[in-house]
Amino acid sequence: MTVLKYVRVAEAALLSHIDVLRQMGRILRRAGIPVKFSQGFNPHSLVFFSPPSVLGVSSLAEYVAIDTDMPAEEVFARYNASVGDNMRATEHFETDKNPNLAGRIVAADYVFPFAADAVTEGAPFTVEYEKKGETVREDVAGKIYGVSSASDGRLVMRLAAGNVTLRPDRVFRTLKESVQSCGALTDTVKTAQYAACEGGFVDVDDLLRKGDRAGGPAGAPSMTK
């Protein structure tokens, strides 16, 4: 099993998750990567993704696991020879089985186009969105696992992801209403994703480098690291 870490930037950040699935299938076929298929009446390609990204948010840390007998180095080289910079792979990993990142990932880091002091860690934080035709207001402070500053002073937030998710577009809209800024949602960037590990977080890159030995049960950690 090969896992590729890839980016979704520029035009690719505007693709829906369904479009990403279709595009990935085309890339793998164009690259000549022999993907295995499931057994049974309706076989499907054994390609597995990390949790879907929000439309319009760029990402430097997307993952796709590909069940193939081709060596990971060759998968990486063939993939990058068949794709543009907007979805290029930046790293490759080899695992014995599907790491089930869709079920394991519990958090992600986002850089927002606002000053780092726009949010106070631990303070109430309310988002507003439509659900089944009704307006919902939700205090999501418990889904914000950390607040920090990027090297250029922009706001970095670690948000719940996976089965329990805090959507970055909802966070962006709340901040946009309270902060004087010309930033757009498309200026928001996901920079890392994390799995739960011993009450904290482990970067997915480290999880994969250690052969998945660092993994733990999915769920919101009780502390940040």
Please provide a written account of the structure.
With 225 residues, the protein is α+β, with helices and mostly antiparallel strands. 20% of the residues lie in helices and 33% in strands. The chain contains 5 helices and 11 strands, in the order E-H-E-E-H-E-H-E-E-E-E-E-H-E-E-H. The protein has helices at 17-31, 72-81, 101-104, 168-178, 204-209; strands at 2-8, 47-49, 58-66, 89-94, 105-115, 126-131, 134-139, 144-149, 154-160, 189-197, 200-203. Strands 1, 2, 3, 4, 5, 8, 9, 10 and 11 form a 9-stranded mixed β-sheet that branches.
Structure at a glance:
With 225 residues, the chain is α+β, with helices and mostly antiparallel strands. It has 5 helices and 11 strands.
Protein traits:
single chain; two-stranded antiparallel ribbon
Ordered list of secondary-structure elements with their pairings:
Elements: E1 2-8, H1 17-31, E2 47-49, E3 58-66, H2 72-81, E4 89-94, H3 101-104, E5 105-115, E6 126-131, E7 134-139, E8 144-149, E9 154-160, H4 168-178, E10 189-197, E11 200-203, H5 204-209
Parallel strand pairs: 3-10
Antiparallel strand pairs: 1-3, 1-4, 2-3, 5-9, 5-10, 6-7, 8-9, 10-11
